[in-house]
Amino acid sequence: MKQILNPRLVIFILAIIFGVGLSLPSLFHIKGPQISLGLDLQGGLNLLLGVKTQEAIKSKYSSIASSINYEAKKSNILLDGIHSDSESVTFDLIDTDEASNLSDILNKLDGIKIESNNNHYIITLTPLEEETIKKNAISQAIGTIRNRLDQFGLAEPSVTQQGKEDILVQLPGIKTAEEEQRARDLISKSAHLQMMAVDEERNARVQTMTDLEAQKYGDVILPFANTAEGGEKILLKAVPILDGNMLTDAKVVYDQNHQPVVSFSLDSQGAKIFADFSGANVNKRMAIVLDGKVYSAPVIRERIGGGSGQISGGFSVEQASDLAIALRSGALLAPMQVLEKRSVGPSLGQDSIKASMIALASGFILVVGFMIVYYSMAGVIASVALIVNLFLIIAVMAIFGATLTLPGMAGIVLTVGMAVDANIIINERIREALKAGENIVRAVHLGYINASRAIFDSNITSLIASILLYAYGTGAIKGFAITTGIGIIASIITAIIGTQGFYQAILPKISKTKHLYFWFGINKKD
Fold it and tell me: Which of 9, 27, 372, 432 has the highest Cβ tally under 10 A?
């Protein structure tokens, strides 16, 4: 037994057990790690989204205005007409003696330019800060969308940046119009939560007030999400009390009427601001605003500590769950618009799978047949190595949860071809040694030594190319790089290590044979 087993053969046997064992769940859809099929194989939704980065700049100015307003009130500094838009934050300092204290507050803010003239202040962002905010809006949107889709339960969604300000989202497995609409809503929902004070003094005139007039008062007119709330519009202070970046958790709970609502929690700073505002504005209303719509505007009865609140809007359980996911994942710094939508039908995926599997299977059978006919038992050994190679690719992809795409299947076919090439090189070197008069033991030894150099050189350069394709490629190119990379490593294990271990195990037997045609497909006199 010790003469049969050798380190290379042990590695080969372990590779067989590993490859076959971990491929079965993917091949027979049983419990265990499985390969996920890409958009081109199982159908789904392809979305190209444009990010409105200028809105992220506007949101930043709103946040700066909110921060200045809060800090000034905390320090008893009186400001008048604080206003923010997409280009600046402006306000007037009422008491000139507080200029020094106001400067201390403003100097704590990063990335801004401060202009002041006769106590009128204009706060703008530096060009570098604006560029940083735009880049952050893109990267944050990608991360937020991935997080939302993961929590949504979709398998293997692909979210990648396209160009400078666009995002490509591929959602395999989306088949019905309802699933598509729900996924689109979840992706595009800004989930921008704000708490805003109601302008009680002027709200009675809100139905006749124009947006321009409201702006003159430092207010904004927003609609109710549910008109049953008691009115269609409400007048709010434009500078929010706080916003969703202070939110730490959101979950679905049920109110006293057993209706689903979304309960949220704030961090310590948000909780303090919330408590301070509610304590100073008892018997006044505070609106909970989500994505520019007012969900509720309850009257504050007492100081609210604890930093938590609820959003009620006549939600279904599904809608409340999606909203909680969006809030937990964080608000998008900038809203997005769908630039292109393409649905890939499941029938196209099935056709693609069928055609690709036929190509893969028929090509594999032809190659195995040729190897056996041309190299006899050496061809059988090489074919076993090819089959193990295929199992190893499937097993490794399943373990890492890789997604199989059409380019990925092309990569598998390519690596099987490379593995065949490696086996042919080895068998030809062995044949050459036998024809040169070497005995079988030495011929096998020389065959592997001479072939290994060429195989290693070829595989290493191909592996480097695969790594670079994976590092710098996107989408389908990554899928191709993954399968070729795994296939190359599997080819080295099976073709060089595995088959050599097998030969070492049977060499004592075949070294005495005179039937070279049976073992290597040649005659001595060839």
Answer: 9
- Cα separation, 270 vs 526, in Å, equals 87
The predicted structure's pLDDT at residue 16: 92
Residue 476: what pLDDT? 66
Q: How far is CA 488 from CA 385, 392, 404, 465, in A?
A: 13, 11, 17, 11
Dihedral sign of CA atoms 11, 13, 14, 19 in order: positive
DSSP letters for 16-59: HHHHHHHHHHHHHT-SS--PEE-HHHH-EEEEEEEE-HHHHHHH
By the 10 Å C-beta count (0-12 exposed, 13-18 middle, 19+ buried), 363 is classed as middle
Closest by CA to 335, choosing from 52, 14, 132, 15, is 52
- In DSSP terms, which residues pair with 44 in a beta bridge? 172, 344
Q: Which two tokens stand for residue 159?
A: 């979210």
Least confident of 98-102, 227-231, 266-270, 361-365: 227-231
Task: Give the model confidence (pLDDT) of 454-467 as tens digits.
Answer: 888 888 888 898 88
With 0-12 CB in 10 A as exposed, 13-18 as middle and 19+ as buried, what is 262? buried
pLDDT tens across 168-191, in order?
888 877 777 787 787 777 777 777
Say which residue the tokens 């096998």 belong to.
Answer: 444
Q: Of 408, 314, 302, 310, which is closest to residue 353 (Cα–Cα)?
A: 408
Number of C-alpha atoms within 13 angstroms, CB side, residue 99? 10
Residue 135 structure tokens: 């880049």
Residue by residue, what is the 3-state secondary structure of 382-407? HHHHHHHHHHHHHHHHHHCCCEECHH
Residue 124 pLDDT exceeds 90? yes
* 329 within 8 A of 147, measured Cβ to Cβ: yes
Helix/strand/coil for 241 = coil
Distance set, CA 325 to CA 157, 177, 254 (Å) = 16, 21, 16
Q: Examine the pLDDT at 313 and tell me if it is beyond 70.
A: no
- pLDDT exceeds 60 at position 303: yes
